[in-house]
Each structure stands twice: as C-alpha cells, then as structure tokens.
Amino acid sequence: MTDFRYLGDDRRAELERYEFMMGEARGRLAASMDCLTDALILVGQHGVYCTSNRNPRVPALDLQAVMANLNGAKELVSAVMDKLRAEREATEKQ
To answer: Is the residue at 49 inside a domain?
Structure first.
C-alpha cells in the first residue's frame, strides 16, 4: 500500500480495512467517500455559524460552493464505485 502521509493513523487503518474487504480501487474509493462525507459534515456545522448576510437561514455563499463541490465529488466517486461493481458482476456471470 502506498504511504499516504496526509492520512492520520485512524484513516490509514480504515483504508487498509476497506482495501482488504473491497480490493484496492474500490477500497480507496470507499475511504475517499468517507473523507468527503466527513468534510461535508464539518462544512455543514460551520455553515450554522457563518450564514449569508442576505438570508440568515442559509450558509454563506462560499460555504454553499464548497458543499456543492463536495457533493459533486461524492456523486462522481459513487458513480465509479457503481461502475466497478457492475463490471465485476458481469465478469463473475461469465
């Protein structure tokens, strides 16, 4: 496994577990999905305190942009995981 220096010990252990359960590619995607989800949670919590000046019921515009990009990244990762799963199942049926 590549040494991902930016990951903490807990994330590295989680990555190893995912790679063992799902294989290298899908395991890394699953770990990435968890990182993106955690980032969304943190940005969402920050959005409670940093609200828009125009509409205090919504997060500030910069936080909305970050959340939109994180959600987009999660959708892309999910789509790749689905494609890998479909390819694996097609291969297993043959």
So the answer is: yes
Find, among 30, 36, 3, 38, the residue nearest to 14 by Cα.
30
Look up tokens 């989800």; give the residue.
37
- CB of 84 closer than 8 Å to CB of 25: yes
State the pTM of this model: 0.81
Residue 80 is encoded by which pair of tokens?
């790749």
Identify the helix (H) or strand (E) that includes residue 48: helix 24-49
Radius of gyration of the chain (CA): 17
CB-CB neighbours of 36 under 10 Å: 20
52 in any annotated domain: yes
Cβ neighbourhood burial of 18 (10 Å; 0-12, 13-18, 19+)? buried
Residue 20: both structure tokens together = 């063992």
Residue range of the domain that includes 67: 22-93
pLDDT tens-place string over residues 41-56? 999 998 888 888 888 8
